[in-house]
Amino acid sequence: MPVAGAFVTVAFFLYSVAIWSERCQRKLALWMTVLMAFGFLADSIGTGMMMQLARENGLRIGVHGCFGYVALAIMFLHLAWALGTVFDERWQSYFSRFSVWAWCLWVVAFVIGGMGAVNKG
C-alpha cells in the first residue's frame, strides 16, 4: 500500500500544480496539460495497485473506492478537456471556470483515502 499511496501523492502534487498554475495564469499552457497527464497516469497506477490489493484481501468497494473511481473518471475527462483547450482556445473560459471544481472533487477522494489509510495504520 505505501507504493500505491506514493503514486497517488505524486498525482496530487502534479495535478495541483497544473490546476493552480492555470488558475493563476488564467491560460492553460501545454506544460500544464503534460503535468495533468502524468498526474492522471500516476493516479491510475496507484488506483490500480489499491484495487489489486483490495481484491487480494477480499475487500469490497467502500466510500473511498466509489469516490476514487469517480475522481479518476473526472480526472480523465478533465485531461481530455485540457487537451481540447490547448488546441482550441474557445474552450479556455469554460475550462478555467470549472477546473478548480474538478480538482476539488478529486481532492475529496484523496483526503477520504488518506483518512482511511491513517485509521487502518
- H/E series: HHHH
Tell me about the largest β-sheet: none
The backbone outline, from C-alpha atoms, is elongated
**Uncertain residue segments:** none
The number of helical runs is: 4
Assembly type:
single chain
How many structurally independent domains? 1
The percent range for helix content is over 70%
Give the DSSP E fraction (strand runs of 2 or more residues).
under 5%
Spatial separation of the terminal alpha carbons: 11 Å
- Number of DSSP strand runs: 0
Radius of gyration: 15 Å
- Overall SS class: mainly alpha
Kindly state the mean pLDDT as a whole number? Answer: 85
Secondary-structure blueprint of this entry?
Layout: H1 2-25, H2 30-56, H3 63-87, H4 92-120
Helix pairs in contact: 1-2, 1-4, 2-3, 3-4
Structure notes:
The protein is mainly alpha-helical and 121 residues long. The protein has one domain. It has four helices and no strands. The protein has helices at residues 2-25, 30-56, 63-87, 92-120. Helix 1 (2-25) runs antiparallel to helix 2, helix 1 packs antiparallel against helix 4 and helix 2 (30-56) runs antiparallel to helix 3. The model has no long low-confidence stretch (mean pLDDT 85).
Primary descriptors:
mainly alpha, elongated
Entry summary:
The chain has 121 residues and is mainly alpha-helical. 87% of the residues lie in helices and 0% in strands.
